[in-house]
Amino acid sequence: MIYFTKMQGLGNDFIVINNIEGNVSLSTAEIRQLSDRRFGIGFDQLLMVESASNKGIDFSYVIFNADGTEASQCGNGARCFALYLQKKELT
């Protein structure tokens, strides 16, 4: 079972998955299936929260588009990522 949080920022919707422990791995096909608005959860992008590898940084995140490809950045996703960390009291 995968636990997620659904969020939206200015019309873009996201699911956020806490993968700080590193125990969640999703294939491109699985991401596409989850993003389907009729048969899955439905989202524009998936935000995977992870432990940061750089000293002085608590967390990082990886962004996946609905087609399963990795995205380099998303402003609305960054806002949701920050709110997620605050609401979950991770920072």
UniProtKB/TrEMBL annotation:
Reactions catalysed according to its record: (2S,6S)-2,6-diaminopimelate = meso-2,6-diaminopimelate
This protein's record includes keyword rRNA-binding: no
GO cellular component annotations of the record: cytosol
UniProt GO MF annotations: diaminopimelate epimerase activity
GO biological process, one term: lysine biosynthetic process via diaminopimelate
Keyword Cytoplasm: yes
SUPFAM superfamilies in alphabetical order: Diaminopimelate epimerase-like (SSF54506)
Pathway(s) annotated for this protein in UniProt: Amino-acid biosynthesis; L-lysine biosynthesis via DAP pathway; DL-2,6-diaminopimelate from LL-2,6-diaminopimelate: step 1/1
Sorted UniProt keywords: Amino-acid biosynthesis, Cytoplasm, Isomerase, Lysine biosynthesis
Cross-referenced InterPro entries: DAP_epimerase_AS (IPR018510), DAP_epimerase_DapF (IPR001653)
EC numbers: 5.1.1.7
EC class name: isomerase
PROSITE patterns: DAP_EPIMERASE
Family the UniProt entry places it in: Belongs to the diaminopimelate epimerase family.
PANTHER family attached to this UniProt entry: DIAMINOPIMELATE EPIMERASE, DIAMINOPIMELATE EPIMERASE, CHLOROPLASTIC
Protein name from the UniProt record: diaminopimelate epimerase
Organism per entry: marine metagenome
